[in-house]
Amino acid sequence: MDADAQPRSGRAPPGASMSGAAENARMLAALLGVEEEEATERLQRRVLITADDGPAAGWAAEIATMLERTVLLTNDPAQADVELLVGGAAARASAPAVYAAIDAECAVVSRAPVGPLGAEPPLPLFAMICACGAAAAVLNAVVDDARLPPTPDPLDVRLADLALPALRGLAPIDLSGAVLVGAGAVAHGFLKALRHLPVQGRLDVVDPKNVGSGNINRCLYLSDGDVGDPKATALVEHAASDFHYLELAPEILEFKDYVAKRPKVPLAIVTIDSRRARRQLQKYVPGKVLDASTTDVRGVVVHSHIQPTAGACLACIYQHIPDEAARERSIADGLGVSLAEVKQGFIDVAVAEKICQAYPSLDPGTLVGKAFDTLFRELCGEQVLRTPEGRQVLTPFAFVSALAGALLAVELVRQATGRAETNYWQVDPWRAPLTRMRRKRSKIPDCEFCSRPEADTVVRHLWG
């Protein structure tokens, strides 16, 4: 079985725009300390995926989904720069090989041949998580540079380390009343994982932004045809067919406006990419929170809590840090606006006119309602501007965001089954998730939410 379509040469991966491919190259260039041209060349090296029939073929397709938005895939052994051999398949190319195998309990990815594992196939959610690790290992083989975050050899991912309850026979999880906050890359990974769980009810998807060309390289449900459409609508339209008993409903507005219509939010599943926005979200006091975030390509953080909580809230986890202020100042300087205006989050009519004075080629009408960081990233992607420090705003590879979303689904199951005894999990996306990295984070004394005297009163009024 060949998990691929036709060979590609010098083009963006399937479903990815040239802008998205350029974002991948900029991220790699920053990691390696090389020019973008060299990073682009490395990401245009081709991967051939060869798999045995049966469960290995399905897992190979999952890995291909993670890889195809970052590197080029080929079905021609003569073009292969790296071959991924899944499930004991025989090599078809003379290129360097990466070997991968999976069963119900573990997955192994190595540069050396992997011996046979058990015969029982993996649960689909576990297979997706392991596909993210396999993509990391293959990318390391493709780039072939010690400056890239390393994957261990062998990479050994074990189901036991996810601390999941038994999924077979799991009671349906009713998401009625829940809201998915954000429709970006982590949200896509979450829904790709959620389709493997018995969910029902209705899940609102809240996001005020439109799809940009730079979103395509990491949002698993999107393609070039979605650029310009509302992100919430595009995600719901593409993901809806994956769910038989769960209704997905797009809400094209900010979370504060959503809460104005519906003051009590029983469950907020948070995937937005701003520390400030997460702190702001906490003041609306959702009853339960599931949250996942990425730190460029180096880390994934998963947080959860149920109110009232003695542990950390979103504002505790994402407290204000100096780097955050520096980024906001860079955005303000780069766009020619004030820091106070950037802190508003979204561009209004007056600010759009001001930005267009600095960038006459832009249309004020297309800027209104757009997030400052989104516009800044787009202009960086087009190399129209750089931050004063010469650093660009960079986005993760697809497998990193997908892993964050998948681990968010893991936490949903743990919360739904009463096993959420920890509230913080830090994971290296280039290594196996480890249960020993789970922590119980406490409140911070100067939290802008928890430290307010009225916070406890509000929590108990809403949630008892």
TrEMBL record:
SUPFAM superfamilies: Activating enzymes of the ubiquitin-like proteins. It comes from the Bacteria. The keyword Glycoprotein does not apply. One of its GO terms (molecular function) is nucleotidyltransferase activity. Residues 20-164 form the E1 N-terminal domain. Signal peptide: none annotated. Residues 169-448 form the THIF-type NAD/FAD binding fold domain. The keyword Disulfide bond does not apply. Keywords: Nucleotidyltransferase, Transferase. Residues 1-20 are annotated as: Disordered. This is ThiF family adenylyltransferase. It comes from Xanthobacter oligotrophicus.
